[in-house]
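Any chance you'd type out a single protein's sequence alongside its tokenized fold?
>
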Amino acid sequence: MSNKVTIHTVAEACNVSPSTVSLVLNDKPGISQETRELVLETARSLGYIPNSGNIHRTKQHLSTVGMVVKMDPGLIPLSNPFYSQIIAGVDDTCRDMGISLLFGMLPVNRHNQPVNVPPLLENSLVEGLLMVGTFIDETVYAIVGDRQLPIVLVDGYSDTNSYDMVVSDNYLASYQAVEHLIKSGHRHIGLIGGEPGCYPSIAERRKGYRDALQDHGLEERYTADFNIHRTQGETETALLLADNPQISALFCVNDNVALGAMQAAQKLNRRVPDHISIVGYDDTYLATTVSPHLTTVHVDTLAMGRAAVHLLSLRLEKPDAARLTITVHSELVERESTVKK
């Protein structure tokens, strides 16, 4: 009977969350004395036996995680279809592992520099941090560096190689998406979105576009540059198409930008895909809410969130292990917005 008793069994009997039970059993702070005594007594009465692999390393068991998500000017992370799925993957995995999840937002300016930092970075309960979509600069490092917390960057970047990371293969996937357009007969392909000095993941997508054209002997570059967090670029795309009517395909740095490109094409009476093919990136829910449905690069953002929690747990258990980068591979999903010439 005792072998079947789990943390979830104890939690249900006490009418508390599994993460609360985990905190008590690992002698962590933040739980009232009354609740602590209730959980311990219930665990004893039910015959709860800790996992034998954890008996000698309770202090290394990850029980409270802080997740800090970049907040671009005027945008809430949960409204971003890319980051919202990463957040969902983190939350789902923490629930499965009985980990308490604390959430904070890191406001940044248009250059991705922190405007201020959340109190979560100084929360003493936090045993590890997931930094989602953030660039760790001197401001952030000054706060978290001295605490020596394990940190995993999720679609995040740093000037150093000091952190574990979970990223998608932005460069290769973009290269392959543009190569698909080239193999479909397109010779005049535009790049929509981003600007010099943009966030590294977007910069990698732009580089994939340029290198694919270069490697296939296509010299013409057509670019609509703009800050993707301020606009979808409908105006910029319309100007690019009006000035370059020979363009037959567009590669857009994300799905939201692709929707703006579709609107620009329609206003110029250029039907998608009959007159112009359009490819997006991320494969968010937006891709199938438009007509025609959008050909786009699928990124498994749920898997990125899940992998990040496991990588953080590993780092806490093995602090001296070599730094790891998990790359989630992406693939092109062909729908209705592209055709062969």
Observations:
- Residues 175 and 208 are 4 Å apart (CA to CA).
- The chain has a mean pLDDT of 87.
- The chain has three domains: 2-60, 64-168+301-329, 170-298.
- The longest strand covers residues 64-71.
